[in-house]
Amino acid sequence: MKNQTVRHPAGTKGNLPSSRSSVRTWLKTWPGAFALAGVLALGVVLFFGIRTVVPTSTPRQSSSMPVVGISVGNLAPNFQLADAFGRPVSRPSLVADRPGLLFFTTTYCLPCVEGLRALARFQNDVGPDRFNVLVAFVDPSEPPAALRAYREEHGLPRTWFFAPDTDDMVTKYRLRALDTKYVLDRAGVIHYTDIYPATYETWRQALALVGITP
Fold it and tell me: Which of 49, 52, 149, 192 has the greatest number of beta carbons closer than 10 A?
């Protein structure tokens, strides 16, 4: 089965004399002090000058803050969508109370339908409240009505989100093929991804990585 490619990122002030004559007298009387003050002033200028021209490095991210990306271990890119039934969904809301699964497809991808049916069977076995599902449709010519009909035609769960890609997820996730899937933990970190047609066993192994087993 051939995957369909989708085309479409300082110092302190000194006490100086007030008049010019007093200054000249002060310079004659205190040549050593003046020289010392000059050296100190030069040092202050050089010190602060160097500090302003030396580039500073970007603060390193803590090891507890994964980098945003599309590989396992990355924080999945964020998105803001409304599904075909008007419900808002984003990466944080998808994983707010349980792990989440993100699946890219179109209404005419036949291997994708089989994979989603297998996912529905797996979710029925483990319990409908164990993980959330977002099915993102990447063909911009498909209206929300087509997505609603898709859900009904294939008997897919009403708890899933069926949303058109209105937030350029194709680019954010560098989509290369339909059937692309991501399993996210409750922090939004990716634990599994692939681009191949899915079976029941695919979902069993993928979701076990975020603690979901029958």
Answer: 192
Residue 97 CB partners (closer than 8 Å, separation 6+): 132, 186
pLDDT at 65: 84
Q: Are residues 118 and 26 in the same domain?
A: no
Amino acid at 52: T
Residues 178 and 113 in one domain: yes
Backbone phi, then psi, for 77, in 5-degree steps? -55, 145
- Whether residues 107 and 193 share a domain: the answer is yes
Q: Copy the structure tokens of residue 106.
A: 């179109």
What is the pLDDT of the chain when averaged over all its residues? 80
Structural domain contains residue 119: yes
Mean per-residue pLDDT, 151-164: 98
**Residue 107 pLDDT exceeds 90:** yes
CA of residue 81 relative to chain centroid, distance: 15
What is the tally of structural domains in the chain?
2
Residues 110 and 177 in one domain: yes
Pairing mode of beta strands 161-164, 132-137:
parallel
Measured between alpha carbons, how far apart are the two ends of the chain, in Å?
29
Same domain, 48 and 119: no
Residues 41 and 135 both lie in one domain: no
Distance CA 59, CA 47 (A): 23
pLDDT band at 64 (very low <50, low <70, confident <90, very high): confident
Q: Is there a domain that residue 74 lies in?
A: no
Token pair belonging to 148: 């609603």
Q: Retrieve residue 191's tokens.
A: 């634990």
Which residues span the domain enclosing 47? Answer: 20-53
